[in-house]
WD repeat domain 3
Amino acid sequence: MGLTKQYLRYVASAVFGLIGSQKGNIVFVTLRGEKGRYVAVPACEHVFIWDLRKGEKILILQGLKQEVTCLCPSPDGLHLAVGYEDGSIRIFSLLSGEGNVTFSGHKAAITSLKYDQLGGRLASGSKDTDVIVWDVINESGLYRLKGHKDAITQALFLRGKNLLVTSGKDTMVKWWDLDTQHCFKTMVGHRTEVWGLVLVSEEKRLVTGTSDSELRAWDIAYLEEIEDPEEPEPKKIKGPSSGIQDTHEAEDGALETSEAPEDRILTCRKAGSIMREGRDRVVNLAVDRTGRILACHGTDSVLEVFCILSGEEIQKKKDKKMKKARKKAKLSSCKGEEEDLEVSVEMTLQDEIQRVTNIKTSAKIKSTLQCIRTMTCEYALCSFFVPGDRQVVIGTKTGKLQLYDLASGNLLETIDAHDGALWSLSLSPDQRGFVTGGADKSVRFWDFELVKDENSTQKRLSVKQTRTLQLDEDVLCVSYSPNQKLLAVSLLDCTVKIFYVDTLKFFLSLYGHKLPVICMDISYDGALIATGSADRNVKIWGLDFGDCHKSLFAHDDSVMYLQFVPKSHLFFTAGKDRKIKQWDADKFEHIQTLEGHHQEIWCLAVSPSGDYVVSSSHDKSLRLWERTREPLILEEEREMQREAEYEESVAKEDQPAVPGETQGDNYFTGKKTIETVKAAERIMEAVELYREETAKMKEHKAICKAAGKEVPLPINPILMAYGSISPSAYVLEIFKGIKSSELEESLLVLPFSYVPDLLTLFNELIQLGSDVELLCRCLFFLLRIHFGQITSNQMLVPVIEKLKETTISKVRQVRDVIGFNMAGLDYLKRECEAKSEVMFFADATSHLEEKKRKRKKREKLILTLT
């Protein structure tokens, strides 16, 4: 059966016009061994790496569909952790630009990411209020920490101690013991959301930033360091602009609550507060690598910088204060200068954390295909290129027409066109003029003309008004027909009026939309007009009699733009639902949906050839869509759409229940995704193949025994594709092909009927010494989640006994091999260090001899000259 009509698929080609998105943070990254030169910024679903010296984009880390919300570089500078809006995390290599590791455990957007000191663990916080600690090396989740009641804002590891501190929008700061995975301390001394926290003074002081103008400092004392159990008195700090800041008694009375008072690991007492100049919330709070410089900023344009003094500097300052106090006391004393006076000096928090400077920026501070020209203009609502592409005409919110020269970027002329907002422009098909529609209930016609430039002898382009069409309602959109005989005008009363261009007489009225028509376009042959409205519908009309051919429910929100593909009856629509859709105006069918934008789409443009579509969105990006040569079959497209909806529904299903798991358990860190479901299906298929092949082998042996000779057994095609391996080896290959971060969740959705076969297989494979670490990981997880059913099954008792013996012996062998290799590497390290020291001294000696030789030459030259 032949195709009656063929469509070609449009695919995403590029994102341009975008420096960075506002949803995520900016981080410095190390590239080519250079630090402080390159920054990574979120750019919709991608991450852009910018060179700050050259102002150029040098690398793009390609994302999928979800928008980037958080970035964190690894301590070694080789990787970048990227958090997304759907709760997933990807680890990108900055050397290759590829993201091979994906963690899926959160149900909402990632709000915080932090590596530990060595880069082996990653803590992630999310809007779902959970904190998950991931094993980056093993590519798996370690545990989930539950306790916060609102979104997580920050998470920090403590160096040298297996502790984690987190803050949230629930006004709480929580301390976690990662050995036992429980919260042992909750600080409740904040009255508003905690937006940031940093550790300073060798991790003995915690500074927090909230929604008010205070930076609160907390002194940390670890259990082994605590000598004086008395709580110090809170300090009174004089702020830079508002006098003395007293610590509130209500706050001090409820500074902390201990989850387990009998197992106290550290104490945290409030040291005082420092007043910021900004009166709004803290957006970012950070320290440099030395821990000396503290910087913070809010939603305004001021960056406040503080310096944290070291112990020696604080002591010097204290000695100076003491000296001044003694001198003052001697002058005021009546007993004489000889007598020693006892003088006490109290150091305040302001003496320890000093304000360095406030940096005023030109705009609000936010976490940034090349633009060829930037022109400063008024609030622009519509625009078009003048024929010849040398000038551009812009319509503004104040009703003005602004004419710019593209080569120089200069404003050539400003004309008061309308008394209200100028909503729409339409270039005439003969390219000699254009028409404008505005909120002053009028349509005005303009012609291009050349006038003498006052600054030169040459003429320049200008426009002049020729006619005006007065109407009863505000004009929202205007459009010429291709033959320039008709003019369509969209009005605020939800109708579209059609007028003759030459006489301006009324021709047709198109009514049927429930809300005003925002956009419209007329087909190349003038036969059809398509209108898009705020009522989310698109209507297709005939321009001969004004009848409505079809009404289509096009988008889930207002239809913002509509344009026909040149020389066809296909058209594109863009909506506030972030989607672009292609339609067939003859068959009234939806062809395809283009998704990629993360906020409302305001407009789009189709190239004259129809090969390219460019869309513009409120996410500050321009996206290029390219028509391919790939045929698009509507039935297949519908099937793909149904599959995507099914996969989305699978991901939203409840997590499978685990026997024996309670609400407080924090072992399971993953979540059910379509990838984990597919991985479980692959495991089930492999086990079934193993069962079938094992049964065939037994049957084949019986046949050979009865026949008294060997009969060749046909090899399964799947096993042949893997190199004629055994069925058990095939199952192992399937396990090795599953991503490490998805392994536990795939086993979790596996039915118990497959577990006995897997236990038998694991025993066989571990005995052979194949991938002992992977098999033990799968074995221990299955024993954990199916413990009750396995121990109650008498058939599995001997299998478990064999597994116990096999696992202990093989793990001991692997441990011995690793120990031997570590000792060998340690020996090689010492050898290399010894050689490098010899080379260092040899280089130093040769360098000294070279200097002596040069000095002798210089002395000889001086003697010769004298």
Observations:
- The first strand starts at residue 7 and ends at 16.
- The radius of gyration is 36 Å.
- DSSP finds twelve helices and 51 strands in the chain.
